[in-house]
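Help! Submission page says 'invalid entity' but I think these are all valid:
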Amino acid sequence: MTGIKSDRHLFCAGPWCLSPPELGRVGARVTAAFFCGRTDHVAAHIGIETIFETLATGPIYEYEEPVLSIPEIIQQILLPPHSSISLTFFTYVYRISLISLIYGKMRRIMGKVPKIIATSGKHPGAGKALKAAFPLTIPILTGYLFLGLTYGVLMSTSGFPWVYPMLTALIIYTGSMEFLLVRILLSSFNPVAAFATAFMVGARHLFYGISMLPRYRSVGWKKFYLIYTTSDETFSVNYSARIPEGVDKGWFYFWVSFLDQMYWVVGSTLGGIFGSLITFNTKGLDFVMTAMFVVILMQQWTKDKNHVSELTGLIGSAICLKIFGPDSFIIPSMIVIFTALTLLRCRLEKSLKDGRAGMADEKARGNGGVGQKAALRAGDTGQTAD
Amino acid sequence: MSILQQFITIAVVVAATVLTRFLPYVLFPEGRKIPDFILYLGKVLAPAVFGMLVIYCLKNVDFAAGAHGLPELLSILAVILLYLWKKSMVVPLIGGTALYMVLIRVM
């Protein structure tokens, strides 16, 4: 992947690039024709050519023709270098159109797949489930593609061949752990620490498992794959999804999980292959994941009459984040949430059972605090949960 | 690290991740009835976990320095408002992310 990278300036419009001397010559010819009217006045020619060349190149330097490797040629075609504001704008429009084209093509292809599966006859109901499941995975498509790209690029720039991100995407499939894995693989060999870190980072999957226990029943052989590919986003979508009539539950969950993993694998692999060639400034695009979680939280919020659970999660985690710092607040948060919800069980279970309006409860508890505090506050205001 | 050491490290991480994913299903297999407490937990844990995940996404935001976390907070507010207005997933997502990408370049 080597090529002589000289400090050259290339003037490019789309895939066509001119080196400074060439630009100088072209410019000179055009100007000479314009001012002199004739292009055979040698002196004017030479003079104007020299002026243009100097303006174009700055101080005269040796321009060496670089030897481009194939990835660099592809890069030059897809992501041309630029050197002026208008050309920068043009290249960004160019890149965005290219990516939208690819994205649109992908979605069209995805749309055709249900028909193929439905008419294959081997797995009835799978096509219908795919059609129902795919729209729910579109936000994850964007998020995972870009997050996966980031991960692949990180792996690639840390010196790992593209097989690494592809394999880890297939067998580990936990975004945060994979990012940590890069750091772990670059440090000294310590499998015990790696195991402990992986367990702590993945501990939230315990909660996901508990929540999906009733839903993942009676889905047959797919269950193993469903559990294996539980991720934050897959869990969120599967948990809050309202499966439409006549759609097979098992296939629905399967398609959500499968598509999500494919997006992640594709993103990571592409990132690993193209590595540092990707110069698209996508800073901030991973906010789409935060936005998705907020939307899912809102969906749950508007569904629930009683917001104690959400608030416990939010406030408990925020407090633990403050106390324990960003790297190790998940486990304490989980303990706090678990304890709070266990202590509040009696009050919550009642309101869950008969679905009473939880607003009064919420007011009585203040901000849905932790255990005893909530009970005290309820006593203070004189209102009870009943 | 040598290739073998890398292989062992990855295998260990896979083992830990698989353990966290499968443990609940191993403890409460399909044939037997799930205890009421676990069913209750399943209903109430999820919303709390969503809240925790939102905080998790914001864990590296520095509220004391720099932009004081305003881009994140404003974008989340935009997401909430857009959701309440449109009730879909796509519109708040795109709107919130676009706003965030603009804000972090501007603030």
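Support: the input was valid. A stray whitespace character was the problem, and the output above is from the cleaned input. Residues 85-120 of chain A form the longest helix (36 residues).
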